[in-house]
Specification:
The structure holds two protein chains of two kinds. Chain A is built from 18 helices and no strands. By secondary structure, chain A is an all-alpha fold. In chain A, helix 5 (143-156) packs parallel to helix 7. The longest helix of chain A is centred in the N-terminal third of the chain and has 36 residues, at 106-141. The radius of gyration of chain A is 36 Å and the shape is elongated. The model of chain A has no long low-confidence stretch (mean pLDDT 89). Chain B has one domain (8-89): Winged helix-like DNA-binding domain superfamily/Winged helix DNA-binding domain (Arc Repressor Mutant, subunit A). The two termini of chain B are 22 Å apart. The mean pLDDT of chain B is 88. Classes of the chains: A mainly alpha, B mainly alpha. Chains A and B meet through helix 4 and helix 7 of A and helix 2 of B.
């Protein structure tokens, strides 16, 4: 899949695309899984199922990118995973193979779907029984309503004569024990038999059940109410998030921080596509070139952009490519304010246990010295230093201290230049 | 594997339940079966695990029962119903 020629788009658009397609696919899957129940959206289980179907392709897309099976900036890969994640799990999509035994994860998921279906089935039966029981109890308790109900049943009965005969032993004097309840049950069964689909509507039209009872239990009212409530909550969440994003905080617009974090993540991502890396580099360079005029603010702004990237240089196992990219960014974006803000941190990164990265940092420091502080020469020993594999910690520390001494001198020279 | 031969009652019930979950009363109305025939059809399908049932599997109380085709057998149920359509077409 990585070899597939696909438009390379920013990862946030890929994930958004996966999410949008996943909403449609999840809805279709849930409707299929619990197809038997017309009021399926009235159950928490259905919503959990929907959420699982929604999150699953997003997690799968991230996982496949993490394992370098595909790239999360590939438009086609996003569409394939979003629409066909079941086939991906089953290994039926050429070029996308789930690593190891991960495809076996689909089986417990299917078992969970079956359990959810069964739970909804049980609840549905309970709700129906509860509605019937409540309505029947109201007839038993109120003779006037029972009379009205009886009229309705006889009007609609398939066999009024048989119904009269069934009721006769229950209407003797004195009545047999539990006669009112038995009469209601007999009438109820007859109505259900003669009007299996419309009995609720008929009861409502005769005023024997309220509109709310009828709509809620027999017209999927709960399902509609819950769906509308969740839909409104989602819209409110999106509107609130959007208005917060476009709003401004104490320093700048709220959207800037997440976007910066996103580009820092992409810039350090070892399996990012070349175009993705370039996009993030362009963004970070633009951020470093648009520093505020105030020196304090500028230092803070620069630190916000570079500090998380430079910090990664301390990690021993950092891949060569991201480390080179970070150092190239640091050198390319040099300016008096930018360089001054990260120099001490960069010097301290020389203590990394990765000697190859230490060499790169050392070269970057020399380049920055020539570009910004040419007037202050570092120690000649330091210039000649070539970090090696088995260098003792003490030797590295001595070089770090030499660089720190140079930095103090360079700063003093720079401030002296400014005062004169 | 040889597909089981379902009775007409069972096929009628299965076709109705493949659309949605139904109670016994609605099934009687949709399939045109009486209590006894409906009970026999349901018993056959329950025995083959083609439907799930909540309530009593009893001819007297079959109207109160609630039934559904579980999603795990959708494919199998469709195959059985498809075979019937194919036979009729022949």
């Amino acid at each position: 899949m990585t070899g597939l020629g696909s438009p390379d788009i920013p990862a946030y658009w890929s994930y958004a695309l996966v999410l949008i397609v996943a909403v449609v696919v999840a809805r279709a899957n849930v409707n299929n899984c619990v197809a038997g129940f017309t009021n399926r959206w009235a159950f928490a289980g259905t919503w959990w199922l929907f959420l699982a179907y929604l999150v699953l392709p997003i997690l799968l897309f991230w996982f496949l990118d993490y394992t370098s099976t595909l790239q999360d900036t590939s438009l086609f890969a996003a569409l394939v995973v979003a629409a066909g994640y079941r086939q991906v799990f089953a290994g039926r999509i050429q070029g996308i193979t789930m690593p190891g035994q991960t495809s076996a994860l689909w089986q417990p998921f299917e078992a969970w779907v079956a359990r959810t279906n069964d739970r909804i089935f049980t609840r549905q039966k309970q709700y129906k029984d509860r509605f019937d029981e409540r309505v029947r109890a109201s007839f038993t308790a109120d003779p006037a309503r029972l009379q009205q109900f009886e009229m309705l049943v006889f009007e609609r009965s398939n066999d009024p004569a048989a119904l009269t005969a069934t009721l006769a032993p229950l209407r003797t004097t004195p009545p047999p024990p539990g006669a009112p309840a038995k009469i209601v049950t007999t009438l109820w069964r007859d109505l259900r038999m003669s009007e299996p689909e419309n009995y609720g509507y008929l009861l409502y039209r005769r005023g024997l059940v309220t509109w709310w009872q009828y709509w809620r239990w027999l017209e999927d009212g709960r399902s509609k109410l819950i769906s509308a409530g969740i839909g409104l909550a989602c819209v409110a969440l999106v509107v609130a998030s959007a208005s917060w994003m476009v709003g401004s905080g104490a320093e700048d617009e709220h959207w800037r921080r997440p976007l910066l974090t996103y580009h820092q993540w992409r810039f350090l991502k070892s399996n990012a596509s070349e175009r993705d890396r370039w996009r993030s580099r362009e963004y970070l360079v633009a951020e470093l070139r648009s520093v505020p005029a105030d020196s304090g603010q500028a230092a803070k702004h620069t630190a916000g952009v570079l500090a998380p990237l430079i910090r990664e240089l301390r990690f021993r196992e950092i891949a060569q490519r991201p480390a080179e990219d970070v150092l190239q960014l640091v050198v390319d974006a040099h300016s008096p304010i930018v360089t001054a803000s990260h120099m001490p941190e960069l010097i301290d990164c020389l203590r990394t246990q990765n000697y190859a990265i230490r060499l790169q940092i050392h070269r970057a420091l020399l380049a920055l010295q020539r570009a910004e502080y040419a007037a202050t020469e570092p120690d000649p020993d330091l210039v000649r230093w070539v970090p090696a594999k088995d260098e003792a910690a003490g030797d590295v520390d001595a070089r770090v201290r030499l660089w720190q001494k140079w930095w103090n001198d360079a700063q003093r020279a720079a401030s002296g230049k400014r005062t004169t | 594997m040889q597909a089981p031969t379902l009775s007409d009652e069972a096929l009628k019930v299965l076709r109705a339940l493949r659309e949605r979950a139904l109670d016994g009363y609605s099934l009687m109305s949709k399939t045109g079966l009486d209590r006894t025939k409906l009970y026999e059809g349901i018993r056959e399908l329950v025995g083959l695990d083609l439907v799930n049932l909540k309530g009593d599997l009893n001819p007297e109380l079959i109207g109160e029962a609630y039934l559904v085709v579980p999603p795990s057998v959708f494919g199998y149920a469709d195959m059985l119903l498809g075979q019937l359509r194919f036979k009729r077409a022949q």
